[in-house]
Specification:
By secondary structure, this protein is of the alpha+beta class. The chain contains 24 helices and 19 strands. Strands 2-1-5-4-3 form a 5-stranded antiparallel beta sheet, with helices on both faces. α4 runs antiparallel to α8 and α23 packs across α24. The radius of gyration is 34 Å and the shape is elongated.
Length: 653
Amino acid sequence: MAPQKLLAMQKSWNRYMESNHLDVQLLRPEVASSWERCRNLNVNPFQEADGYVNQLELRERLYRKQHLLKVARPFMDNLYNFVKGSGFQVVLTDEHGFLLEVLGDNDIVTRTRHVLLCPGGNWSESQQGTNAIGTAIVEKKPVQIYAWEHYCQSNHFLTCSAAPIFSPEGEIIGILDISGDYRVANAHTLGMVVAAVNAIENQLRLQKATDKLYMAYRYSNTLLENMSDGLISINNNGIVTEMNAKAGEILGCNPTLAKGRHVEQIYNARHTLLQVLNEGTEYEDREIIIENIGRKIYSSATLLRDDSGGIIGAVAVFREMNNRQPVKRPTILQSHSYTFDHIIGTSPAITAAKEWAKTAAASPSTVLIRGESGTGKELFAQAIHNASPRCDRQFIALNCAALPETLIESELFGYEEGTFTGARKGGRAGKFEVADGGTIFLDEIGDLSPNVQAKLLRVIQEKKVARIGSSNERGVDIRIIAATHKDLNEEVQLGNFRQDLYYRLNVLEITIPPLRDRGEDLPVLATHLIEKTAAKLDRKVPTVESGVMEKLQAYGWPGNIRELENVIERAVIRAGSEGALTRELFQLQAEAVVKTEPAQVAVKEIKSLREMECEMIVEALAFFDGNIQKAAAKLGIGRNTLYRKMKEYGISS
């Protein structure tokens, strides 16, 4: 810096110290603002550093910042190699200006130790006045402070260039700085610091993305390996993309070696995954023969689709025939992509439910969601999970009414090897164990048997589970969200539900209003579902004629949002690709009570099952322009079955 400018800077500092006058023409804005902050903070510009470093606090901060240190050290080493021998040092601090690590030449390190520019020193503005580290924290941008720009006289021998390090979430987590004698300052120093900080931030983002991918892989892999059924998936070319250990056991091959090979090299059956891919016909609970090993199994197969509905492969689950039980599709980790933004509506009832649910999300307490069928209880449960501190962990949902008592207990608690015939070798973890650290959603909790109720009560009280057939208990950290359409208080009075379990579950109760009590939300809900259905069917959004919304609002909706969604999908299909939505296209249940006139009952013609089946076949064929395969898939029947029914009803393609 030119001597004249340096002298002017010195005079500006002296004038401010003597008369509190700022030379705004000579001082940079960030320096002038910082000087004023320091005066307001009562920082003594003539103070001398006391030389005291709290070693205990330093160790604690180093421990908390070990991840940042690990990432930053290689870049600090590179920086120091550039400035080595020039009288400069590289400094890393935390977000409060507390120095964590210093790399530098011995002469400058010794000299700066006297002003506490060393590990353990605090270089926030409140402690050291205007300086590159503290001012960068306040300004949230790269800063260079030169000689007399420092507020404190003891730091005038320094020139410092610092830049804040931001986390992937956008928060300051540290400061990188180069400091040295101002007489050997380099105009490119700040640029070097900024480049190093950019590299550190890129590395932090890369590591976060890598960690997320690894955790997702670990979760999915754990679930696959804990399935009691065999699973195999292939891509569109018939190449095996996934196979779990149970599938390898049934097929007599190594799952690791099977991946990447063609499925016909793994097993051959009369009904293979290739047939599912080629014909587009899925099947469930079918008895098939593995020809190359002469073994009978039960199998179910389905197509895999991407977000746009395109087929990207197929997956099959199967179980050995000697178990004499058809394959049940495995209960696996549930998608938990819904947030409170997905809960549509602004009526007072739904708004109150959402606000209370958001409050419940921040608490670790058990939640009980009450509401009629079809009101969106699982949507609320997922939103609570995603707004909670457990949002990065697993969300597992289990419908207590969908499984018999003999299965639900093993699903929840798992079992040990040899507990019963067909038990998986090595045992199997239950949903409580798999959900450890996350959230488990127990839908239709009112349908649990008394025996399972007693065991669930112990899990809530002790935070421990024991697998069936074992006396060893495992600790679990889970957040339970339960849901029911029943009045549990009434069930307690009838003796169907344990009172102590009811009180344990009913810590935070959320009641979801039925659709009939939030009529003002119906137009926006219907509009959203019409757009969603049109996108699903790959057609443009149809126009809605007058009178449709009034008809929908007048209906009682006993099936709530689920019924509304079905009614809208049926109407959009009936309208065709270019048609508008009219009142006549919306077929509502004849027995439903009209909301505006409770005493009246909507009446319509009751059709026979044959008439309805014939009508739906005609509509499906019309919608898919006579494509038998697509129409059969949509109707959920095989092509041969569709041909037979078309002949029976006299329908031509």
